What we know:
Number of helices: 12
Shape: elongated
CATH architecture of the largest domain: Alpha Horseshoe
Mean pLDDT: 79
Distance between the termini: 42 Å
Largest sheet: none
Amino acid sequence: MEKEQFQNIELIEADLEGRLTDEENHRVESLLASDSDFKNELILYQTIISGVRSEKDEHLVEEFRKIDRLQDVAIAQKPNIFFSFNRIAAVVLIICIASTTLYFYSSREEKSIAASLYVDDPGLPVKMSVNDQLALDNAMSYYKTGNYNSALEIINQQIKLNPTNDTLQYYMGVVLIKTGKFEKSIQYFTLLIDRCSTTVFCNDAEYRLGMAYWFVNDMTNAKRIFLKIEKDTLHPYFDPSTKALAEINKGVK
């Protein structure tokens, strides 16, 4: 009984994620037709996911109440204490799986939305330069052709030699975003924000800092920055920041 119970949970999870084989699809259809317990669990899993996605706390509270009612019915019909315990444990496991799955997919969805709205930096003009400037030109050449790892390698080497250079700090942050290292990019953009009065990259860094926060799902800080930009209609990133804020507000109630 217990082994079958947890196999059913795996089936439910795979079914809702679209990972069932043809054989497993037939098994699910058969269980839905013949096993009311399995059908109730599948419906419960679906409604919990729907509740989390709607982000309405009262809905979630009601779903947990449904769990209690289901357990009461199960205990009344089958008063075996071990069966009841396994049943409760199974439903709790379903909730845990649902929550984990939703967090993963919602986080991935947020990153996808953020990426679709992200305004790329065009990079610096590439000139025929020498010495230190040549290295930065090479990095920009790699950056503009989408070879972000090579660009990152060069900028990283240069910033070790000149750690306070605002151009290197800014493009380090830019390339880190392009390579998916969002947390680290936040550090570099923050350095520039802290000295806005002395760098030409202040507005650019401010916008990208907000986007980096969004990429790591830190909605509080992302909103804080985009709200600040939204108050300045002359900010060069006013429009993209307003759009970003609108999207974030759709998901943050």
